[in-house]
Amino acid sequence: xxxxxxxxxxxxxxxxxxxxxxxxxxxxxxxxxxxxxxxxxxxxxxxxxxxxxxxxxxxxxxxxxxxxxxxxxxxxxxxxxxxxxxxxxxxxxxxxxxxxxxxxxxxxxxxxxxxxxxxxxxxxxxxxxxxxxxxxxxxxxxxxxxxxxxxxxxxxxxxxxxxxxxxxxxxxxxxxxxxxxxxxxxxxxxxxxxxxxxxxxxxxxxxxxxxxxxxxxxxxxxxxxxxxxxxxxxxxxxxxx
Amino acid sequence: xxxxxxxxxxxxxxxxxxxxxxxxxxxxxxxxxxxxxxxxxxxxxxxxxxxxxxxxxxxxxxxxxxxxxxxxxxxxxxxxxxxxxxxxxxxxxxxxxxxxxxxxxxxxxxxxxxxxxxxxxxxxxxxxxxxxxxxxxxxxxxxxxxxxxxxxxxxxxxxxxxxxxxxxxxxxxxxxxxxxxxxxxxxxxxxxxxxxxxxxxxxxxxxxxxxxxxxxxxxxxxxxxxxxxxxxxxxxxxxxx
Lengths: 241, 241
What we know:
Helices cover about 40% and strands about 25% of the residues of chain A. By secondary structure, chain A is α/β, with parallel strands linked by helices. The first copy, chain A, folds into two domains: about 5-165, Molybdenum Cofactor Biosythetic Enzyme, Chain A, CATH 3.40.980.10; about 170-240, CATH 3.30.70.600.
């Protein structure tokens, strides 16, 4: 049987839980991981509380092939991710010479205050992950990848680390939409799902200005079955539109 | 000491993890719960796998005052939330007479097929939560509130159940933005955070078309301290803008 690679995303930050910031990293990461054959299999959003971050990181790094974290690696008092990850691994937080050098070059000795220097500290043994937007790095320690929360920076970090990830077959997807009612197509759709056991069929009703309907998303690593499955779904939808 | 009420949101659905759907319920719920003095303290996104949903529901309902779930209560094969919640509580899934009557009235006997009837089944002992958009209900069982995934329906369900929730003091918030650099204000901001221990100060850098800067979000149940804290933060930001 084909090996399935599973990842968990840990989103760190009170701002996401309070609703003051809308997360944009989960959807990005889910899509990108699909393409390299890694299944984003869980996500957790945790507050800026050290014990909660440490406990969550330790729990998920034991249960998933890859763990990605976003948020909390900036220079301010609420940026506690790196200390928590170091504590989770039971290693000290150390000034990384390459990160230090990059920051000195960028800011100059004068503007490189204590707050900014925090961003050059990583857990012992971590490998830096650079990005094209900011000078502060993310990093990898074992199967945990620590990234920024700002989407643009996170995306740049991910583009740098993605080539190092080992995945399985890419997950392909097909989406079809229709004005059909979910309750009308449900029986037929269940039959198609039973026929194509290696295609994951999801049914998502929508309502908007353009009217109501249903969006069917099919995902599989098997291109031929995905194609055949989508033809049957299209037939079904036409029957009830 | 003041009692703090803590909630966990469980977002159920492969579509969120694959990135094909952007979640909109977390931010809504986080904001709404703040207003009634309940802290959204964690969120988990789990796939449509029964054991994972059951395990997650059982874990979080033991650890939080309130659990909210979104997604997976429609009529199609991938809507497995209700069976999983019933299994988590160790009770059977039963046809609820009120939900059944509402659906017969709406669809008529003829269109009320087996798929739609699934939406009238709830775990034994559950209390229905209606909504203004669709005929299919959500429900409450003990401290777990099961809601739809479609944001409009979820929001309507939440508006019906919100008056039944017991919370603490509302969490008030103030947000100020500036073009200051996070690294410049970090030390001063840390000092202000130490001075106002009952205000949660978050610092969030942003970058967009309008330029880069930082947004400071302050949250507290203490209105006077929140006010004084925000004045000090404003002073600090002006110093570095």
